[in-house]
Amino acid sequence: MSDGIRARFRIDRSEFCLDVDLALPGRGITALFGPSGCGKTTFLRALAGLERAPGGYVAIGEEVWQDDARGHFVPTHRRALGYVFQEASLFEHLSVRANMEFGMRRIPADHRAFRTEAVAELLGIGGLLERRPAGLSGGERQRVAIARALLATPRLLLMDEPLAALDLKRKREILPYLERLHGELSIPVIYVSHAPGEVARLADHLVLLDGGRVAASGPLGETLARIDLPAAFSDNAGVVLDTVLASHEPDHLSRLEFPGGHILIAQRPETAGTRLRCRIYARDVSLALERPLGTSITNLLPATVTALAPTHQPGHVLIQLQVGESRLLARISERSRRELAVEPGLRLWAQIKAVAPLA
Predict the structure, then answer these.
(1) Angle between helices 168-184 and 138-150 (to 10 degrees)
(2) pLDDT digit string (tens) for 278-290?
(3) Of 211, 173, 287, nearest in space to 43 by CA
(4) Phi, psi of 338 (to 5 degrees)
(5) Which of 31, 51, 86, 170 could form a Cys-Cys staple with 166, CB 3.0–4.6 A?
(6) pLDDT tens column, 149-172
(7) Which sign does the torsion angle of CA 331, 332, 333, 338 carry?
């Protein structure tokens, strides 16, 4: 992965050990997800050089930032990165424009990748440039912090739970702008979060950390569809489908198509052809051996069982299903599994009780 990110760290502490060796994509958003204390922020700080891991290695494409085996270490201020923390930490005595441009002063004019006005427009803060931070909402302050990081022309953008300090209203305000960054930026983003909804909505690649080690790493859809993950991740077991809004149907419904079939959801405001990401939780999928008749469940899909695994909840089992080129997960009781004789290779029907559009 010559254009990607390589990171290898082992940081030993008396109460904790971070031990990771990762190859990550050079584009899109990679989400680091896991419970508090699993090592997400420590990993980010090591990537940035704020915390040096003895024997560590970091490379962004062909540019090596740390290779302790060769005695090579680039200090943080010389790494082309942007870092967005939970708190915006703006300079209260400076205008929004001056805050945004603070980091770009060390970048030669002919090396700057972004213009102030273009970044302000991207993040919806063009009308705030001459205001002071004291008059901004929490969401606006955080967007200014993101703009400041981008104007430093980073090769890598690090975001450490940027929505954690915001209330629900402000989170909803800022998420569409993060989606715009996802769609319009070519630089890789490492996004730390313990909020499953943020990860499902924003990420392309997912790294699951558990106890300082990598439990799983891979494309979002493939990783979420795995059934061999630790108990720390099973409460939110489910998949994300990338769909296309094919049409608007009668009765205020919209038809979404994906590789493997289609689903109907409450009518969406988007036009036909729009790509829409949806989440389907394992707890919202039930199984039937024959196509159900006389049911209120609208979304019924033919599926094949590919794998089974126990869950941390006694008496329940997680079922992996293949639906065309896509995968679903279902969580059912062990008793139901026995009565239906569910085993790998069995063809049956998946009944989807709820679909959550991520927008």
Answers:
(1) 20
(2) 999 999 999 999 9
(3) 211
(4) -65, -45
(5) 170
(6) 999 889 999 999 999 888 888 888
(7) negative
